[in-house]
Amino acid sequence: MPYGCDDDKYPWKQGPEDSLDAKYLYVSHAELNAIVNKNSSDVKNCKIYVTFFPCNECAKLIIQSGIKEIIYKEYPKNRILKRRAHRSG
Ligand SMILES: [Zn+2]
């Protein structure tokens, strides 16, 4: 959840991503949290380590932040995201 938002006041259900009762509209992704809460002045030319290949929104944020390499465990299923990540480096 975004900083200051009580986890107990928001839904944690899984379901359709556009449902107001599902968690997806409210949670912050790990990539966003890592970039926003970094311990340096910026993340230009850094690597980011994530479990899964970033979603479309996080991929854009990673590119815009100047991160040059994404280390992930799971191979991307979406070819467009994979291509975008490679182009930014
Ligand atoms: Zn994401």
TrEMBL record:
Query: Locate the CMP/dCMP-type deaminase domain: which residues?
Result: 1-89
Domain of life of the organism encoding this protein: Eukaryota
Keyword set, alphabetical order? Hydrolase, Metal-binding, Nucleotide biosynthesis, Zinc
**GO cellular component assignments:** cytoplasm
Please indicate if the UniProt record lists Plastid as a keyword.
no
The enzyme's E.C. designation: 3.5.4.12
Q: What class of enzyme is it?
A: hydrolase
Q: Which GO terms describe its molecular function?
A: dCMP deaminase activity; zinc ion binding
In the record, the note on similarity to other proteins reads:
Belongs to the cytidine and deoxycytidylate deaminase family.
Question: What is the recorded name of this protein?
Answer: dCMP deaminase
